[in-house]
């Protein structure tokens, strides 16, 4: 079975392809099949992921899986949420992982409540009009550190401390991060749903 991954992120493709391989499923990056990006006008991860999955299924005629993920900080009422990738731009920085971390540390200076969650929502559709999309959510609760720790990973990994592991994501080896990450959890749940419903 072939499934389009509604993403152009090669790292995400490699990670998910390895997980889906035992099912005999081949994931194909949407950028290898067509150009263009789905609109993501919504305020929730699930709505944006559904928009991306329907868009990819419509363009390719294949089932599609899309991911929308982000950081939800308690002190900011759950924000930046769906705007995580562009977080730093509201403070005058150019969009980059490094600037996102810099802006977050600046905004969190002197803040006592450092609780935050990383959330990954995967949505799968068999066709653009699939009335029963598969929805898998992975969520990891942690704390925002006061300074960067570790050199692995990407995004907010250097400041996302996971208490049960005693490390930030950026301090974890890839296998350990995958076992504890929001995307690792949503991927395992989606794998089970695809096996159960589509195969």
Automatic annotation (TrEMBL):
Binding site for Mg(2+): 40, 68
Gene3D superfamilies, alphabetized: 3.90.950.10
Enzyme Commission no: 3.6.1.66
Pfam families (UniProt xref): Ham1p_like
Keywords carried by this UniProt record: Hydrolase, Magnesium, Metal-binding, Nucleotide metabolism, Nucleotide-binding
Residues given in the record as substrate binding sites: 7-12, 69, 154-157, 177, 182-183
Cofactor(s) the protein requires to work: Mg(2+)
Function: Pyrophosphatase that catalyzes the hydrolysis of nucleoside triphosphates to their monophosphate derivatives, with a high preference for the non-canonical purine nucleotides XTP (xanthosine triphosphate), dITP (deoxyinosine triphosphate) and ITP. Seems to function as a house-cleaning enzyme that removes non-canonical purine nucleotides from the nucleotide pool, thus preventing their incorporation into DNA/RNA and avoiding chromosomal lesions.
Family: Belongs to the HAM1 NTPase family.
PANTHER family: INOSINE TRIPHOSPHATE PYROPHOSPHATASE, INOSINE TRIPHOSPHATE PYROPHOSPHATASE/HAM1 PROTEIN
Protein name in the entry: dITP/XTP pyrophosphatase
Species name: Comamonas terrae
């Amino acid at each position: 079975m072939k499934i389009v991954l509604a993403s152009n992120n090669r790292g995400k493709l490699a990670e998910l392809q390895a997980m889906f391989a035992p099912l005999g499923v081949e994931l194909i990056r949407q950028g290898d099949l067509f150009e263009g990006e789905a609109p993501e006008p919504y305020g929730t991860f699930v709505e944006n992921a559904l928009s991306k999955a329907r868009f990819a299924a419509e363009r390719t005629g294949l089932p599609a899986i899309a991911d929308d993920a982000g950081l939800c900080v308690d002190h900011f009422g759950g924000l930046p949420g769906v705007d995580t990738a562009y977080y730093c731009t509201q403070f005058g920085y150019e969009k980059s992982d490094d600037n996102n971390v810099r802006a977050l540390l600046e905004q969190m200076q002197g803040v006592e409540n450092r609780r935050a969650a990383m959330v990954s929502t995967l949505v799968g559709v068999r066709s653009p009009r699939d009335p029963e999309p598969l929805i898998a959510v992975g969520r990891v609760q942690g704390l925002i550190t006061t300074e960067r720790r570790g050199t692995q990973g990407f995004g907010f990994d250097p400041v996302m401390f996971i208490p049960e592991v005693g490390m930030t994501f950026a301090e974890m080896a890839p296998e350990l991060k995958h076992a504890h990450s929001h995307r690792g959890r949503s991927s395992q749940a989606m794998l089970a749903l695809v096996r159960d419903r589509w195969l």
